[in-house]
Amino acid sequence: MSTLRPAAFFDLDKTIIAKSSVMAFGRPFYQGGLINRRSLLKSTYAQFVYLVGGADHDQIERMRAYLSQLCKGWDVEQVKAIVAETLHDLIDPLIYDEAAALIEEHHAAGRDVVIVSTSGVEVVEPIGELLGADKIIATRMVVEAGRFTGDIDYYAYGPAKAAAVVELAANEGYDLASSFAYSDSSTDIPMLEAVGFPSVVNPDRALRKEAISRGWPILNFSNPVPLRARVGLGSPRSPVYAAAGLGAGVAAAGLVWYARRRNKDMSTES
Question: Are 8 and 101 in contact (CB under 8 A)?
Answer without folding.
Answer: no
